[in-house]
Design a protein that fits this description.
The chain has 336 residues and is an alpha/beta fold. Helices cover 40% and strands 24% of the residues. A hairpin with a 4-residue loop joins strand 8 and strand 9. The two termini are 35 Å apart.
Amino acid sequence: MPFPVLICDDFALARKQIVRSFPPQWDIDVTYAVNGLEAIEAIRQGKGALVFLDLNMPVMNGFEVLDKVQSENLNCQIIIVSADIQINTLSRAKSLGALDFIQKPVNPESLKYLLDEHSLFQAHCSQVAPFPMPLHIDLLDATKELANVAMGKAAALLSRLLDAVVILPIPNVNTLEVNELIMALKSTDSQEGISALCQGFIGANIAGEALLLFHDSSFNDMATLMNLPTPHHQHNEIEIMMDIGNVLIGAFLNGLSEQLDMTFNQSHPVILGKHCSANDLIHENSGKWTKSLAMEINYRIEEHDIQCDLLLVLTEDSIPTLRQKLDHFANRSPLQ
């Protein structure tokens, strides 16, 4: 009888990557869930003796699933599959009963080793592997998972730098006209000021700019974590922006380049504005942005008043190459 395996992830590309990484001849019956509520219902129905669980999901996240499984004493084993590789995240998942952890994107050899280590493959081995494959992967969905993995790499580096826990959002990815992009930037506006830096990047037919917005209230806590005594000294503020920008933008682009199998060259970061409103920032720079594909990540630091908004904007003529790269990345599954 096939072994019931549940894959729970809100992105189709991630679900496909996991199932393509399963070893041949693993006699399993695969079920898919796109959030924690669907996962819990599937586990209750006996469709998830083994669960591959993402942590960062809408409706009910992975930590909430782990807690629910414990409180209801549900019969399943859970392997976390996540881009969030902060040490605190791994420890918390293990404390809530996770069997093990594997980093996104899933490597087939690493997954096979993990399954063998927990005797999950040999006990359910046959001559065929009849599990179904996900069918269609949308371009925006695939780009969100791309951003999700890159975001996790950047957050892990920032977490080590600041010795703090980075709270990760679900990436927001959209194809935007220039007026929609301006509205997205204005949505970050508040009564407090913001400071911003920008850094261009270019690869093989993919180019764009990374815009990092600092809420001015973040400087005090950021300076404390970075051991800078006077955060509002102009030199220290610029140092904070440059250091954090180097981590978040650099690591994010490295995460993208690794997945797309390409290299990005980065320009020198430029300060766009300090202690200004989003309206002022937009007025000075809106001519730079045209129709784009934009990835938006809102980083927060646990127990600190620190907010950094990363907006990665790809040029319109980068989209065909990105589609081709993602098509290859998804093992040639057609992108809609």
